[in-house]
């Protein structure tokens, strides 16, 4: 393995959550998103020798991901891009500015999820692991689709607050040690 | 009511109609702050998917076996009295579960499932054990073959590569330091043998000259997992790769959801000793098998079985397992090609 590939692999590990989120904004079926992400990972490694190390890695990887999304949409005529090109560019720019700190914060998500009550965990299980939409979740749980949508929104907000609190607590601990 | 928030969450859950979709696009284009809010939510959405998959694969979340009670939790969210009753019931169940967990913790050094740090430590010990100069023989079995996604199928229509020797019933002899001999049986029963003696890799194919190469991976490239640095014949590097590409946890007492691990008594005198299962679930963004399970002796960290689940292999996805069948000491010369063909067979250096 040459040194360029080694560097790019290391950077990819850090950039992957950001690139994955960017792809997920436009390829919303999770398994399709995973396919596009894998193809992006391969394209990133294959292009390792063309990466200019003076440029931010995430911005470069997002550009490759955008090409892969285009190819995916071209391959699968059933899918179409829900945003226009200008909006996609804005979104790409926004993801390019995501900091390591923001990505790092998400490590608290697991703890926050574990603190939810079992019913709420089940909702996330059905939505994210089973990739069910609110209407299908509602059918399984005997709830209205709208109620499921609102519950998911409420829970995501709750998790965001939990992550922010955990981050603040961790920073306070680190500050105390220093 | 916060309309933009509803639009953002509705977009994630794919519940927006066309006018709402247009309204969201308009709102996003109005300000970089709006786009920023969307970006933050997408990051959380993405991470929720990853965490939920890990939870599912590791069995950490209660499966949806009791949808009624879960539904009740939500239906009654505004009915405080019923909710309190539900919470009391949940509290009772939780207390019982907690008690069982505490008891299990007491009985198990890992408390059932490990933290990521402890799992990483176990993986390092497995790697160290695997580097020992001890000979081991694994029987390879293909448990399941499934066709991969549609794109793979399209590709395979144009490919005209010669068929690969089957992996099922192959025998893999390994020894620390990268030595291996892999014996595969062709459909006509003849052996197709590849190997590596640390200085050269080689291939002995029926009816052909012996081929040797100083490229140690020259004859391993057609094996499942090679393109993902998860080679069946280089278990040490495969284990190292798991540290980089997978979420890893340890479970005491063998398999969780799949068939129990079987270890031949002859091969493992300590098979009665505690066995652990390392479960590695591939992180999104990395290629290779969806999940890898490594069953090993808790005391010695010797691997008894490895299962590669949903391993992409050409147009297929394989689930295959390697089961320890022998610890018979093999001489160093066994890993040289000359031990596997008649002396009069021509040898071609590549």
H-E string of chain A: HHHHHHHHH
**Measured on Cα atoms, how large is the radius of gyration of chain B?**
26 Å
Helix content of chain A: over 70%
Radius of gyration of chain A: 19 Å
Q: Which strand order do you get reading across the main beta sheet of chain B?
A: 7-8-9-10-11-1-2-3-4-5-6-12
Average pLDDT taken over every residue of chain A: 88
For the sheet with most strands of chain B, the description reads: 12 strands, mixed
Distance linking N and C termini of chain B: 72 Å
Helix content percent band of chain B: 25-40%
Question: What would the average pLDDT of chain B be, to the nearest integer?
Answer: 74
How many separate helices of chain B?
8
Estimated share of beta-strand residues of chain A = under 5%
Listing every helix as H and every strand as E from the N terminus to the C terminus, the arrangement of chain B reads HHHHHHEHEEEEEHEEEEEE
Structural class assignment of chain A? mainly alpha
The general outline of chain B is: elongated
| Major pleated sheet of chain A | none
Brief sketch in words of this structure:
Chain A has 178 residues and is an all-alpha fold.
């Amino acid at each position: 393995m040459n040194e360029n590939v080694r560097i790019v692999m290391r950077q990819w590990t850090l950039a992957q959550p950001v690139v994955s989120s960017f792809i997920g904004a436009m390829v919303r079926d999770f398994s399709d998103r995973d396919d596009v992400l894998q193809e992006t990972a391969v394209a990133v490694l294959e292009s390792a020798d063309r990466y200019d190390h003076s440029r931010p890695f995430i911005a470069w990887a997002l550009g490759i991901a955008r090409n892969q999304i285009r190819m995916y949409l071209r391959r699968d005529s059933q899918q179409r891009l829900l945003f226009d090109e200008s909006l996609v560019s804005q979104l790409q720019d926004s993801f390019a500015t995501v900091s390591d700190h923001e990505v790092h914060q998400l490590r608290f998500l697991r703890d926050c999820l574990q603190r939810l009550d079992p019913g709420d965990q089940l909702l996330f299980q059905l939505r994210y692991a089973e990739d069910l939409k609110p209407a299908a979740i509602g059918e399984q749980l005997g709830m209205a689709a709208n109620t499921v949508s609102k519950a998911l929104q409420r829970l995501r907000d709750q998790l965001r607050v939990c992550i922010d609190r955990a981050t603040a607590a961790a920073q306070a601990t680190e500050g105390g040690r220093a | 009511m916060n309309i933009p928030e509803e639009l953002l969450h509705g977009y994630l859950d794919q519940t927006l109609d066309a006018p709402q979709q247009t309204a969201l696009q308009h709102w996003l284009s109005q300000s970089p702050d709006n786009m920023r809010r969307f970006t933050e939510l997408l990051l959380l959405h993405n991470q929720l998917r990853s965490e939920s998959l890990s939870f599912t694969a590791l069995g950490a979340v209660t499966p949806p076996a009791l949808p009624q009670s879960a539904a009740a939790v939500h239906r009654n969210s505004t009915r405080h009295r019923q909710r309190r009753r539900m919470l009391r019931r949940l509290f009772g169940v939780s207390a019982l579960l907690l008690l069982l967990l505490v008891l299990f913790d007491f009985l198990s050094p890992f408390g059932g499932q490990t933290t990521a740090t402890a799992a990483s430590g176990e993986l390092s010990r497995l790697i160290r054990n695997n580097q020992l100069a001890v000979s081991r023989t694994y029987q390879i079995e293909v448990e399941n073959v499934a066709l991969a996604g549609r794109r793979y199928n399209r590709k395979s229509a144009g490919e005209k590569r010669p068929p690969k020797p089957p992996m099922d019933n192959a025998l893999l002899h390994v020894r620390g330091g990268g030595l291996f001999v892999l014996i595969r049986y062709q459909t006509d029963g003849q052996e197709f043998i590849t190997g590596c003696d640390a200085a050269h890799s080689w291939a002995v194919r029926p009816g052909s000259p012996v081929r040797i190469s100083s490229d140690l991976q020259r004859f391993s490239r057609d094996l499942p997992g090679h393109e993902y640095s998860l080679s069946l014949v280089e278990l040490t590097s495969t284990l190292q790769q798991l540290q980089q590409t997978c979420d890893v946890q340890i479970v005491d007492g063998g398999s969780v959801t799949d068939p129990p691990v079987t270890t031949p008594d002859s091969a493992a005198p300590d098979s009665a000793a505690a066995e652990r299962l390392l479960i590695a679930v591939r992180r999104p963004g990395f290629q290779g098998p969806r999940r890898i399970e490594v069953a090993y002796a808790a005391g010695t960290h010797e691997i008894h079985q490895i299962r590669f689940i949903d391993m992409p292999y050409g147009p297929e996805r394989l689930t295959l397992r390697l089961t320890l069948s022998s610890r018979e000491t093999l001489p160093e010369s066994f890993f040289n090609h000359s031990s596997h063909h008649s002396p009069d067979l021509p040898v071609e250096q590549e």
